[in-house]
Prior knowledge:
By secondary structure, this protein is α/β, with parallel strands linked by helices. It has 3 helices and 7 strands. It has helices at 15-24, 54-60, 82-94, and strands at residues 7-12, 38-42, 48-53, 74-78, 99-105, 110-116, 122-128. The strands form 2 sheets. A 4-stranded mixed beta sheet has the order 4-7-6-5, with helices on one face. The protein has a 3-stranded mixed beta sheet with strand order 1-3-2. It is globular, with a radius of gyration of 16 Å. The model has no long low-confidence stretch (mean pLDDT 92).
Amino acid sequence: MTPxxxxxxxxxxxxxxxxxxxRRLGLDVPADADSQPHVEATLPGGLxxxxxxxxxxxxxxxxxxxxxxxxxxxxxxxxxxxxEVDALYAELTGAGHPGHLKPWDxxxxxxxxxxxxxxxxxxxxxxxxxxxx
Length: 133
């Protein structure tokens, strides 16, 4: 048997804030999940994403501490167009989420931006640039 990637796990300090952020990015997470210590959602194609509170992680790994010194994970969301990258970046930063890289036309042929989730992890927003289409 060959292992296959089945789930991406995120450790969060505030479940409700994290889920609200990822809902804005289109993930289908029920509203009643905000108070749960562990939440999962199945993505198109079957891959799962899960959120665990810091307390849950410490329950089985008492030595766990939050990472320091920079971003250690980043999720990337494909947008339909360069204009959607700009609009989504504006929506997220307008809702109070810190922007890390404002939308720009990257030399590799994408409109690209990075916003930080509630735990300070980078979330890339990208679309093929109009010239690359």
